TrEMBL record:
It holds the Pfam family Cas12f1-like_TNB. GO terms for molecular function: DNA binding; endonuclease activity. PANTHER family: RNA-GUIDED DNA ENDONUCLEASE RV2885C-RELATED, TRANSPOSASE. Residues 276-339 form the Cas12f1-like TNB domain. Keywords: DNA-binding, Endonuclease, Hydrolase, Nuclease. This is RNA-guided endonuclease InsQ/TnpB family protein. Transmembrane segments: none annotated. It comes from Halalkalicoccus tibetensis.
Length: 349
């Protein structure tokens, strides 16, 4: 994980913007001072909300002032904020976007409105800025402040590093879609329906039940053997398709979820008879034969977290949506992308 602090200068903000931003810095300072004074005198409780703040700052900015003042008060006690304070907002309440002409703009709430203003993207901050724009990194709170006659913003960016030339491919194994794969940085994905696997299970379960009732135990065992062969053939086909998909990318590494505890992680009753381990084994040895490394990763929350911003989202059937950043995608492909981003342990057949 790489953490980079980005400091960028705003490109020629208008006079009205500069005037409002200057006012916001003073109001932000007065807000923090009022909170600290109230806590020191006992007039305010530590659970204070924006309802106790009477000024024109957007509520998101007020909330950030509360968080900062509370942290500083707990750490340093009473403080006298003499200088204007950089005003700030949390990571969910500001935006980094590009315009039609390619300019990078920062949008954030202030007093009268949201302001969208271009920034200078110099070489030292180009990579983290591009990673945020492409949804490959998490951004922190945004601070806006003045230095001399110039205005700046700063924020922190976190992202995973990928060895040069390597293409991580996350693979999610499930019921409705037996395989979902996403190649990070290559905009490639693969989605395979689980209908055939479910049909095989239903068909042979029905046959076994009928033969069990008829007392034909030997025939029932033969049906079980046929089912295992069908499943084995299907797993061979699925694993070959996945390896062929991965092999088209530069220096691919396949990442699959560890199977430990899978019966406890899923509500699908068929997981007990479905050969997940066999499928993983086939994927692993076929990948090794093709010279592709396979890793296993911890699958915790991969189906719940947003692969774009990392916040917790919601799943409705096959649809995933993140309320924090608005990202939407097929739920299994979102999970596959999360799996691909995680550091894994070597897996051998």
């Amino acid at each position: 994980m790489v953490t980079v602090t980005v400091t960028a200068k705003f490109h020629q903000p208008t006079r009205s913007r500069r005037r409002e931003w200057q006012d916001a810095m003073h109001v932000y300072r007065d807000t923090k001072q009022g909170l600290v004074d109230g806590w020191a005198s006992g007039e305010l409780g530590m659970s204070v909300t924006t309802a106790s703040i009477d000024n024109d700052l957007y509520s998101a900015v007020q909330n950030q002032a509360i968080r900062e003042a509370k942290a500083e008060y707990k750490r340093d006690g009473w403080m006298d904020y003499t200088a204007a304070q950089p005003f700030a907002t949390n990571n969910q309440n500001w935006k980094l976007e590009t315009t039609d002409n390619g300019s990078v703009v920062v949008g954030f709430p202030c007093i009268s409105q949201w302001w969208y203003t271009p920034i200078h993207v110099h070489d030292e901050i180009r990579e983290p800025v591009e990673r945020v724009l492409e949804g490959e990194a998490k951004k922190s709170r945004l601070q806006v402040y003045r230095r001399g006659d110039e205005w700046f913003c700063s924020f922190t960016v976190e992202y995973d590093t990928v060895p040069e030339g390597e293409t991580p491919i996350g693979v999610d194994i499930g019921e409705r879609h037996i395989l979902a794969a996403h190649a990070l940085g290559a905009d490639g994905s693969m989605l395979v329906s689980g209908k055939e696997a479910r049909y095989v299970r239903r068909k042979y379960r029905s046959l076994r039940d009928s033969l069990q009732e008829a007392g034909a135990l030997r025939a029932r065992n033969r049906v079980g053997n046929k089912e295992h062969r069908r499943i084995r053939d299907l797993n061979h086909t699925l694993s070959r398709r996945l390896v062929d998909f991965a092999d088209q990318f530069e220096n691919p590494v396949v990442r699959i979820e560890t199977l430990e505890g899978i019966r406890d992680r899923t509500e699908w009753s068929g997981v007990h008879s479905w050969h997940f381990h066999q499928l993983q084994t086939f994927i692993t040895y076929k990948a090794e034969q093709a010279g592709i490394r396979v890793e296993t990763v911890d699958p915790a929350y991969t189906s719940q977290d947003c692969s774009s911003c990392g916040e917790r989202g919601s799943r409705n059937g096959d649809h995933f949506r993140c309320d924090s950043c608005g990202y939407e995608r097929h739920a299994d492909l979102n999970a596959a992308a999360n799996i691909g981003k995680r550091e894994g342990e070597p897996c051998t057949a």
